[in-house]
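Researcher: We're reviewing a set of sequences before deciding which ones to prioritize for further study. For each one, I'd like a predicted 3D structure that I can look through quickly. This is Anoctamin. If possible, include the structure in token form so it fits the rest of the review sheet.
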Amino acid sequence: MVEQEGRRNSKEFIYSVDTSDSLRSAETCFLIDEERMPAKRFNLFLKRRLMFQKRAQSKDSIFFRDGVRQIDFVLSYVDDIKKDAELKAERRKEFEQNLRKTGLELEIEDKRDSEDGRTYFVKIHAPWEVLVTYAEVLGIKMPVKESDIPRTENSPLRYMLGPVRLPQEVKFPRPEYFTAQFSRHRQELFLIEDEATFFPSSSRNRIVYYILSRCPFGVEDGKKRFGIDRLLTSNTYSSAYPLHDGQYWKPAEPPSTVNERYTLYQNWARFSYFYKEQPLDLIKDYFGEKIGIYFVFLGFYTEMLLIAAVVGLACLIYGILLMDSNQTSIDICDPEIGGQLIMCPLCDQVCDYWRLNSTCLISKLSHLFDNESTVFFAIFMGIWVTLFLEFWKQRQARLEYEWDLVDFEEEQQQLQLRPEFEAMCKHRKMNPVTKELEPYMPLWNRIPWYFLSGATVTFWMALVVSSMVAVIVYRLSVFATFASFMESEATLQHVKVYFTPQLATSLSGSCLNFIVILILNFFYEKISAWITKMEIPRTYQEYESSLTLKMFLFQFVNYYSSCFYVAFFKGKFVGYPGKYTYLFNVWRSEECDPGGCLIELTTQMTIVMTGKQIFGNIKEAIYPLVFNWWRRRKARTNSEKLYSRWEQDHDLETFGQLGLFYEYLETVIQFGFVTLFVASFPLAPLLALLNNIIEIRVDAWKLTTQYRRPVAAKAHSIGVWQDILYGMAVVSVATNAFIVAFTSDIIPRLVYYYAYSTNITHPLKGYVNNSLSVFLIADFPNHTAPSEKREFTTCRYRDYRNPPEDKDKYIHNMQFWHVLAARMTFIIVMEHVVFLVKFLLAWMIPDVPKDVEERLKREKLMTVKILHDFELKKLKENLGINSDLFSKQVMMEESKVQLAKSTI
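Model: Here's the predicted structure for Anoctamin, in token form for your review sheet.
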């Protein structure tokens, strides 16, 4: 009995000391003993005791079983019954052994203790020695002294009321410090109060991921294999993620003292806080600088949209106030003027003649967006976009200072070789910097994939254009159908018609176009990702840049092609009665509404922009919610088990490496709607503002509640997206100038006002009649004349051409050339004025604010001084009585300080 008790105690001791190996834990659960019944009884006792210990730990615990070591990362895997199960198990064993050799501590949760009964969890803790070593390798800056520079707030929010502000402890969770790159040999220099909390959790998971991405797991085919990404790609591990701090709906429980996730949810992710400023420093500390800078950009863009939205709303109010007094609408609606003007049919044979006053309502609606304020707003937005980009550069510079990103170097994991690249490479090449052999793929191996990629992108862009042509054909085809049952004798009587065939066709065509956009976008996202992988980019940065180019080019064409068509092509190449232009020699080219094409461009913009934003927000909110619910529902098969913190996070949606890419892409496409065609739709900034207020909270809610915690990554700017924004800003000046000149009716009205009007009291009276040319009905070819004969001898159409009695009938008259010259002059003048103002503003506004420059100089000086004092103190302690050597070292250190001052 004594010997048996000794065996029991020894085995129990082994389990309590090391539970990091799943095989060992399995062995301890089944004690081998000569006496079968006592062993069974003891096994039952041991299982109950272990279960009690496990349940004693809170399900929200983020610590190892000892309650002391914090979990910095989690790996999960499922037993694979396929033929490569042994290979994967061997990879995992080698990988985990190598992780332990780096100093990381592992604790493995057996699948029998998991909620679904099939998933193993490998919990990883980075001890102090590992953290200090790799903090030095990564050049992480840590505090050395509290800053003596007073904190200032430069956000436009400082002028708003108090309720908009967040509490100081939330907005600024920690004081500002002078920082220096961490060195493990200078640990006493840094403000280390508690080793457990010195490194924030974002830095800890970043360090662990750095180790995971470089840890080898074996040699295969003569090549050394390494990195968690390759293991995830091969399904050796099913997931790898850092843990959230705790539940988002309740504060931290002991032994944890901080739950930043809860703080973020309470002060940032709740929709009731839509009017509040964002806790940017807390976002950065929790999610890392890369995600933090996205929310800084989105918030700054939203603040700037507030100005544009107010001005755009003022322009709309101006149009509403003058809608009833607009002379053009008055003439069109007047039964004695517009009611007497018989217009030529808008399609062949099926369409009938119609009176101009049937478009009374449309002409009034058109004036809401086509008035004198349109020119002002187009010029204003050209200046606004310059101010936005210049002030953003300043905001970015301030952010670099506040977040210690001034000496930022590209994130190592972005420059790391992709596992797919290594797997496909059969060649090796000496790296001239590291002098090591690295995987290398010759250009001739990539050229076929580049050609395939270019051909695919071109094909899909052509497909977008083809779909747009198909929508045009749809509008041309159904217009006659609408006209056949909507146009009646009412259009030839003095009766107001509120829903015309043009309006019906435009609305249905815009809705159909939006549906086609969504369908094409869904398929292209999958294909572009596949094509980019086939190009075999070397690093993650190359992969993201290649995907960015493909996605932006496609979405630019997909979302904007219909707007470009309506703005610059529709109604411009129609011809005239008797000599119309035909599409594919079958369909007559589309004509603009009698109220002008601007109202159709406004309709197109409203449907596509609003539809995209509503669909995007619904998709972003519902997609992770439904998938997480379904994943949790499948996982909770053993309700008696402890649904632990790592299991809860495991069942959340993955944000992924391209999560931010799609967020930026969505914002940039919206920026295009706000800038490229804003002259036709002054409410675009207001719609974008409302969307972004919701977007910020939706993104915050997703990241805080529905997604696993992303691995923290650094970034000092928005990257290539900034160049794209600059390009769109330049193009927007030209597009808005052309919209005002050719799509709007402002220029023809001004030409008539100054050159052709004879009415001094009402200069625009008679403009409608002047802008319509006369056509002799007898000159209609048989295939275009209406099937039903009328007693009219002439009809009117929108153009500047000679009347039928002129010897050069139906050719453009002199007024046409005057209007064309005025349009081209306006484009040249507007572009030069706006570009001149843009260049002046860019020259006047410094990229780095003066106060930031002074703070940078102050911090640089103080950091050098602190390091100087530290080294002197250390030298004095080490050198002791050797005063001569000490004096020389002092002189050398002081010369360094003087050199730093001189450079500052």
